[in-house]
Design brief:
The protein is 62% helix and 9% strand. A hairpin with a 2-residue loop joins β1 and β2. The longest helix is centred in the last third of the chain and has 20 residues. The protein is elongated and about 55 Å long. The model has no long low-confidence stretch (mean pLDDT 90).
């Protein structure tokens, strides 16, 4: 079973994880490198992939002469982990501050705001029943 780590990812490591998920959660170092913004050298990508394996985020299988990398967690868990890191980094862990900033800064249509209100009401109703 992979170790799920709380070690934070760098911007480039998050980009690699996002790229891997976009490639169907199975890709070679070169396939990943070609999809990165301002791709670093091949050896740099391999170092980052090895680091992600050590952190417990990736695993690999050998396919002939190349390694095929895949994530050790689901995209949903990766998204949740990234969101938690984002909230901690920019909002001191406060979901309320994050949501307030999103509502104030976003350009929301009336339909978007109504959908948000509906979701808040749904969650509120669920909390009352607990």
């Amino acid at each position: 079973m992979p170790k799920h780590t709380t070690e934070l990812l760098t911007r480039r490591e998050r980009e690699i994880m996002n790229t891997l998920f976009a490639l169907g959660n199975g890709a070679s170092a070169e396939e990943i490198r070609m999809r990165l913004t301002n791709p670093p050298s091949d050896s740099s990508v391999r170092v980052m992939l090895t680091r992600l394996e050590r952190k417990g985020y990736l695993k690999h299988q050998q396919d002939g002469l190349r390694y095929i990398y895949s994530a050790t967690m689901s995209p949903a868990l990766a998204k949740r982990t990234a969101l938690q890191q984002f909230v901690q980094t920019f909002f001191g862990g406060s979901h309320k501050q994050m949501m307030t900033a999103l509502v104030r800064e976003g350009s929301w249509s009336v339909e978007d705001l109504n959908a948000l209100r509906t979701e808040i009401d749904r969650v509120r109703k669920g909390k009352k029943q607990s």
